[in-house]
């Protein structure tokens, strides 16, 4: 006897790995963002009326987010708004996407101009992390991959940023990551490295002359945010045989490109040339003729 087929609706099997409450929590947060309310407060009634959840569910989610510090409630009006902790959580990712977007045009121009790999990097855990890499079209090329890390003391990107970090951060980096010799040209003496960083601050350009990999030369310059804090580095790298004849031109253009990116990140804050925070206090016309350029202590 043939089996009868049910004409009723098929039951969709639940996804056992899906945490339903997580979807509801993010729906609440997304509502704040999508409604353009990241900077203003929202009434509970508006949230409860718009979101497809029970009022008690919305209330419990808001209460939990408030306890965690991602949402705040005004005691006088009982209205909710996203708290500073939310922006601390999402800010770095947003800033990196903006940094990548703004930097891409300059990186492409450098790639076309020199035909060598162009890198954009940041500091993570006292190391350089590559977040954007445009590879050289040449068969013989040197290219990191996004997410790859390298020491700061022996890379141009690392030294370009290390030179402009606060003294305590420089000390923490050198304590956590000893000056390991990667090649015979690597700087392994703390005193020599600090003197080297001082010269980088004068020119806003760092060189890696086969210090990380034999046969590879790299040129880098720092990128600053609106407050003058170094947040990233831009570099051009390639085989030494190809890089050496154009080294002077690469240095000039990498510095100009990094400066242009800094200005685009904070157009009202930075002058035409990259100024070191260590030199800015004594810049002519700054109004402070007594200030001295800060220097990293040499033990």
By CATH's scheme, which homologous superfamily of the largest domain applies? GAF domain
**Reported CATH architecture of the largest domain:** 2-Layer Sandwich
Q: Low-confidence parts, pLDDT < 50 over ≥5 residues?
A: 1-6, 269-299
Query: Which class do the helix and strand fractions yield?
Result: alpha+beta
Q: How far is it from the N-terminal to the C-terminal residue, by CA?
A: 93 Å
Q: Rounded to an integer, what's the Rg over CA atoms?
A: 26 Å
CATH fold field value of the largest domain: Beta-Lactamase
Largest beta sheet: strand ordering: 5-4-3-8-7-6
Mean pLDDT: 81
Can you offer a commentary on this structure?
By secondary structure, this protein is an alpha+beta fold. The protein has two domains: 20-82, Arc Repressor Mutant, subunit A; 91-280, Beta-Lactamase. It has ten helices and eight strands. The radius of gyration is 26 Å and the shape is elongated. Residues 1-6 and 269-299 have low confidence and may be disordered.
Summarize the structure.
The protein has helices spanning 20-34, 44-50, 55-68, 84-114, 156-162, 167-176, 190-203, 240-243, 247-265, 277-280, and strands spanning 71-73, 80-82, 117-124, 127-134, 149-150, 206-209, 216-224, 230-239. The protein is an alpha+beta fold and 299 residues long. The protein has two domains: 20-82, Winged helix-like DNA-binding domain superfamily/Winged helix DNA-binding domain (Arc Repressor Mutant, subunit A, Orthogonal Bundle), CATH 1.10.10; 91-280, GAF domain (Beta-Lactamase).
């Amino acid at each position: 006897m043939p089996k009868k087929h049910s004409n009723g609706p098929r039951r969709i099997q639940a996804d056992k790995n899906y945490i339903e409450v997580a979807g509801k929590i993010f729906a609440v947060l997304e509502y704040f963002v999508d409604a353009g309310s990241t900077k203003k407060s929202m009434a509970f009634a508006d949230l409860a009326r718009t979101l497809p959840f029970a009022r008690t569910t919305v209330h419990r989610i808001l209460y939990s987010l408030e306890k965690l510090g991602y949402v705040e409630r005004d005691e006088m009006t009982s209205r909710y708004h996203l708290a500073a902790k939310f922006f601390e959580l999402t800010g770095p990712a947003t800033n990196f996407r903006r940094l990548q977007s703004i930097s891409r045009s300059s990186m492409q121009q450098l790639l076309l101009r020199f035909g060598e790999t162009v890198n954009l990097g940041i500091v993570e855990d006292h190391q350089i992390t590559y977040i954007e890499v445009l590879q050289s079209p040449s068969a013989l090329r040197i290219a990191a991959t996004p997410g790859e890390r390298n020491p700061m003391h022996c890379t141009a990107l690392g030294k370009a940023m290390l030179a402009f970090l606060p003294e305590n951060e420089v000390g923490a980096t050198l304590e956590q990551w000893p000056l390991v010799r990667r090649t015979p040209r690597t700087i392994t003496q703390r005193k020599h490295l600090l003197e080297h960083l001082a010269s980088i601050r004068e020119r806003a350009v760092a060189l890696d002359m086969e210090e990380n990999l034999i046969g590879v030369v790299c040129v880098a310059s720092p990128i600053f945010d609106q407050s003058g804090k170094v947040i990233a580095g831009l570099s051009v790298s390639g085989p030494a045989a190809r890089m050496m004849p154009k080294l002077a031109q690469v240095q000039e253009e990498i510095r100009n490109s990094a400066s242009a990116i800094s200005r685009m990140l904070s157009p009202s804050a930075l002058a035409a040339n990259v100024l070191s925070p260590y030199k800015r206090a004594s810049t002519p016309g700054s109004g402070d003729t007594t200030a001295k350029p800060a220097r990293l202590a040499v033990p």
